[in-house]
C-alpha cells in the first residue's frame, strides 16, 4: 500500500490540486494540517483525504513525525511525501516509488539538480548545495539535494527512523539517521515549479541557518569527542600557554598583563567546558545504544 503524506500549513489555494493528483498514484492520501487557520482541513476532508490536525503550528519536522506515525499505523509499504504548495509534480510519484518496488532503495529522494530543466533561483541553489555538503559529511550516501521534500520511504525506513527535529532540519536528520541505519538512499530527477509560489513560510536566510544549526548539532551529537572534545582540548592547551606566559611576565616584571590573563581564563574555561560536554554526550550516546540493543 502506498500512502501519500502531505504536510500543509495554510495551503487552501493549492491543496485540492495536490490531493487530486496524488490520489491517482497512492492508495491513501494523508494530509497533516500543521495548525492552519484557513480552509486547508475542510478541503482535504471533502476530497476524501485522511487529515491529521495539529492544534497549532508545530513545524515541518513535527508534521513529518505525524505522517510517519500514521503511515506505520496504516501498515504502509511506502510513504511518499510531497509539499502542499504544488511545487512538486504528483505525476512523478511513480518515479520515486519504482526503485523501492524493485528493491533497489529504502529511501528515494527527488533531486532538483539532476533535472536540468529546473529554473532554481541562484540563492536557493547555493544554499541547498551548502546544506547538502554538510549533510553528506563524507558518508556512503552521497546525494545532490538533501533538502527536497519530495521523497519515498519503504517499510524498513519508516520503522527504523525516529525524528526529533521539529523544524526544517528534519530533512537532514532523516538522511543522517539513514546513514547510521545502513539504509539505501538513491535519487531520481524531478521537476519543480517555483513560479508564482511562495515556497517557504520562513525567510530563506533564517531557513538556511536553522537547518545548518540542526546539521551541526547532529554531527556533534554523533561524534562529540571528535567535533567537541578535540577543539576543547586545543583550547585548554592554548589556555595553558597563556597561563605560563602570564606567570612568566609576573616573575620578570612583577605585574599581571590583563589581556594575557583574560586570554588564559577564556581559553581555559571554554576548553574545560567543551571537554566535559563532549564526555557527557559520549557517555549518554553509549548508554542509549546499550539500552536500545537490550
Quickly describe the structure.
The protein is α/β, with parallel strands linked by helices and 294 residues long. The protein contains 10 helices and 7 strands.
Overview of this protein structure:
With 294 residues, the protein is of the alpha/beta class. It has two domains: 2-222, Spore Coat Polysaccharide Biosynthesis Protein SpsA, Chain A, CATH 3.90.550; 224-293. It has ten helices and seven strands. The protein has helices at residues 15-22, 40-46, 60-73, 93-101, 122-136, 155-160, 170-181, 204-222, 224-253, 258-293, and strands at 2-8, 28-34, 50-54, 78-81, 107-111, 151-154, 185-189. It has a seven-stranded mixed beta sheet with strand order 3-2-1-4-6-5-7, sandwiched between helices. Helix 2 (40-46) links the parallel strand 2 and strand 3 (50-54). Helix 5 runs parallel beside helix 7 (170-181), helix 5 runs parallel beside helix 8 and helix 8 (204-222) crosses helix 9 (224-253). The chain is elongated and about 85 Å long. The two termini are 32 Å apart. The mean pLDDT is 84.
Topology:
Elements lengths: L1 E7 L6 H8 L5 E7 L5 H7 L3 E5 L5 H14 L4 E4 L11 H9 L5 E5 L10 H15 L14 E4 H6 L9 H12 L3 E5 L14 H19 L1 H30 L4 H36 L1
Parallel strand pairs: 1-2, 1-4, 2-3, 5-7
Antiparallel strand pairs: 4-6, 5-6
Helix pairs in contact: 5-7, 5-8, 7-8, 8-9, 9-10
Main attributes of the structure:
294 residues; alpha/beta; Spore Coat Polysaccharide Biosynthesis Protein SpsA, Chain A; 2 domains; 10 helices; 13% strand; elongated
What's the CATH architecture name of the largest domain?
A: Alpha-Beta Complex
- Give the count of helical stretches: 10
Envelope shape:
elongated
Helix content: 40-55%
Q: What's the CATH topology name of the largest domain?
A: Spore Coat Polysaccharide Biosynthesis Protein SpsA, Chain A
- What is the mean predicted local confidence, pLDDT? 84
The main sheet comes to:
7 strands, mixed
Low-confidence stretches: none
Helix-and-strand structural type: alpha/beta
Please report the distance between the alpha carbons of the first and last residues.
32 Å
Radius of gyration: 24 Å
Strand order of the largest sheet: 3-2-1-4-6-5-7
Amino acid at each position: 500500500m502506498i500512502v501519500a503524506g502531505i504536510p500543509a500549513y495554510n495551503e487552501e489555494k493549492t491543496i485540492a490540486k495536490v490531493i487530486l493528483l496524488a490520489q491517482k498514484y497512492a492508495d491513501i492520501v494523508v494530509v497533516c494540517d500543521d495548525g492552519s487557520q484557513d480552509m486547508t482541513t475542510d478541503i482535504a476532508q471533502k476530497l476524501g483525504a485522511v487529515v491529521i490536525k495539529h492544534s497549532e503550528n508545530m513545524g515541518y519536522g513535527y508534521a513529518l513525525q505525524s505522517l510517519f506515525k500514521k503511515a506505520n499505523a496504516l501498515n504502509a509499504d511506502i510513504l511518499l511525501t510531497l509539499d502542499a504548495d504544488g511545487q512538486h509534480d504528483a505525476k512523478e510519484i511513480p518515479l520515486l516509488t519504482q526503485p523501492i518496488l524493485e528493491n533497489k532503495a529504502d529511501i528515494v529522494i527527488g533531486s532538483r539538480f539532476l533535472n536540468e530543466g529546473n529554473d532554481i533561483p541562484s540563492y536557493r541553489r547555493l544554499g541547498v548545495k551548502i546544506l547538502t555538503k554538510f549533510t553528506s559529511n563524507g558518508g556512503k550516501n552521497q546525494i545532490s539535494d538533501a533538502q527536497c521534500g519530495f521523497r519515498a520511504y519503504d517499510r524498513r525506513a519508516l520503522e527504523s527512523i525516529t525524528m526529533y527535529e521539529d523544524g526544517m532540519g528534519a530533512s537532514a536528520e532523516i538522511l543522517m539517521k539513514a546513514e547510521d541505519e545502513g539504509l539505501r538512499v538513491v535519487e531520481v530527477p524531478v521537476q519543480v515549479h517555483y513560479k508564482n509560489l511562495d515556497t517557504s513560510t520562513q525567510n530563506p536566510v533564517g531557513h538556511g541557518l536553522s537547518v545548518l544549526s540542526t546539521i551541526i548539532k547532529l554531527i556533534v551529537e554523533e561524534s562529540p569527542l571528535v567535533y567537541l572534545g578535540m577543539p576543547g582540548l586545543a583550547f585548554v592547551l592554548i589556555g595553558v600557554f597563556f597561563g605560563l606566559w602570564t606567570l612568566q611576565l609576573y616573575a620578570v616584571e612583577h605585574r599581571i598583563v590583563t589581556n594575557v590573563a583574560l586570554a588564559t581564563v577564556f581559553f581555559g574555561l571554554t576548553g574545560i567546558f567543551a571537554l566535559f560536554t563532549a564526555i557527557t554526550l559520549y557517555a549518554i550516546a553509549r548508554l542509549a545504544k546499550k539500552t536500545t540493543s537490550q
